[in-house]
Amino acid sequence: MRLSQVMKCLKDSGEMDLFTNDPEITGIEMDSRHVGKGSLFVAIKGFQADGHSFIEQAVKNGAAAVVGEEDLQMDIPYIRVADSRTSLGKLASCFYSHPSKEHKIVGITGTNGKTTTSYILKHILETAGRTCSLLGTVSYVINNEVYKPTNTTPDALQIQKMLSESMDEFVVMEISSHALEQSRTEGLQIDYGLFTNLAHDHLDYHKNMDSYFIDKKKIFSLLKKEGKAVVNLYNSWGEKMAEDLQKENVPLMMLGDENCCSIEDVQLNGKTVFILKMNDKRYKIKFPLPGYHNVYNAAMAFLTGMDMGLDPDNMIKSLASFPGIPGRFETITHPTGAKFVVDYAHTKDAFEYCLETARQQGAERIFHIYGFRGGRDQSKREEMIKVSARYSNQFYLTADDLNDETEEKMIGELHSLNEQFGNGKGQVIADRTLAIQKAWQQAKKNDWIFITGKGPESYKKPFKLPAESDLETLKFLQESGRHQGVI
Ligand SMILES: CC(=O)N[C@H]1[C@@H](OP(=O)(O)OP(=O)(O)OC[C@H]2O[C@@H](n3ccc(=O)[nH]c3=O)[C@H](O)[C@@H]2O)O[C@H](CO)[C@@H](O)[C@@H]1O[C@H](C)C(=O)N[C@@H](C)C(=O)N[C@H](CCC(=O)O)C(=O)O
Ligand SMILES: Nc1ncnc2c1ncn2[C@@H]1O[C@H](COP(=O)(O)OP(=O)(O)OP(=O)(O)O)[C@@H](O)[C@H]1O
């Protein structure tokens, strides 16, 4: 494709300056290290580095043209734009022939429930015999091939490339607020935009809840002409979102609105069973994942499936056979019958939903093992400890992924938070595997032990026990118990 053809996508928005020759463009790159002969290199001012300082390297690697924000003179075509990130999405969409058009795309945003809802939707679509790609925190799945994700929502280049490679009819993707704020979704067009909820998280990045909300709301600017918003009203931010969208005349389906679809008769002791009332019809849904939060996730997926024209009876069967998601309420039963749950909860709301679920399931004692990511939103830590102290009989604070924080600083912070807000129930055990071992050794019948925050993710540093994730630690303890004849 000639540069002038790729540039047409920017020309429309008046972002293009003149250039003198028209080379053949073999690919678009945002990382100078990936540039090859004929690439168009887009220089981005990032949080860690400035892509403009790698232009020379990109040219050495064979770049045929460069897009950037600075006023530069070069021997190859240089196109100055106001915002490289938005230009990247537009250019990539153009280069890959606007692949959003080729699929029915569901974008899911919200603080909690994106991964779960996306897995449920993929499952019900596939049960109905439809093909579905998935882009999200746990994995990217394209044409049934599974890839390790870079981000929850990949960069604009990857999005457009994967959409163009996907031969699946549907694409279900998690859309993070970071991605929306960083214009990774520029050039993407979606058929459904789902908003699950908003809760205190990522305020290191978004500064306050209002600006976090505004970034999340950007998902609806991606809707195709005939696209629809699906909003969960069972939380106050969902109500606000729906109100805003109604004012803006965005076609909207609301979970929790009597005139559309509402949840009734929820049973949570044992299996999750509830009624979804849609217009005059009532659908009885049985869902294997416990907890009220999963009622919302299943209902959001069902509502979207109904609008897609899927058969409700088929969806009900599909939901009943949902196989679960790695690291989302994954349960291992201790020899005493105690339940060990590995979960990805890392917000106050998610803690509440999880720990409350144990109460609903008849837990006599609740133990909770968790930590905080270093270098991430520190303002949420106090609220999370308070919830944990309210619901659990005892909790252990461990060193989670430290990122840029030192272990010493994190441990000091854990002690301090525990003293202030732990209600005398907390203990700092920095080694996560030893904290899990301690809980394993003291577990009794009818105890529920939650290990939260990492889900299926690997530990970033080695701990005492030979395991690389929470699940592996539990399996190690299970195996060791068997070898020692402990039943
Ligand atoms: C803070 C942040 O969000 N950073 C994201 C951002 O990176 P950046 O643009 O700042 O990159 P940078 O390292 O400063 O580099 C700037 C530019 O120089 C280029 N470069 C760099 C080096 C070089 O030698 N040559 C070169 O050309 C880079 O390719 C880049 O184009 O854009 C990248 C591409 O999209 C993201 O991968 C990266 O996510 C980082 C890794 C990250 O951890 N982000 C988290 C906060 C995040 O986005 N999380 C959400 C999920 C949140 C949730 O809901 O839980 C997500 O969507 O994953
Ligand atoms: N609808 C919901 N409301 C509140 N909490 C939820 C909901 N669904 C799941 N959770 C809790 O949040 C955790 C993360 O869920 P999930 O992975 O589906 O969310 P996510 O939005 O993809 O999160 P992340 O962006 O951090 O990957 C779950 O392990 C559970 O504890």
From TrEMBL:
**In the record, which residues are listed under signal peptide?**
none
Q: What is its EC number?
A: 6.3.2.-
Gene3D superfamilies in the record, alphabetically? Mur ligase, C-terminal domain, Mur-like, catalytic domain, MurE/MurF, N-terminal domain
Q: Where does UDP-N-acetyl-alpha-D-muramoyl-L-alanyl-D-glutamate bind?
A: S32, N151, T152, T153, S176, Q182, R184
Pathway annotation: Cell wall biogenesis; peptidoglycan biosynthesis
Q: Where is the Mur ligase central domain?
A: 108-303
In which residues is ATP bound?
Answer: G110, T111, N112, G113, K114, T115, T116
SUPFAM superfamilies associated with the record? MurD-like peptide ligases, catalytic domain, MurD-like peptide ligases, peptide-binding domain, MurE/MurF N-terminal domain
- Care to name a GO molecular-function term for this sequence? magnesium ion binding
Q: Which residues form the Mur ligase N-terminal catalytic domain?
A: 24-83
Q: Which residues cross the membrane?
A: none
Put simply, this protein is called UDP-N-acetylmuramyl-tripeptide synthetase
The gene from which this protein is expressed is murE
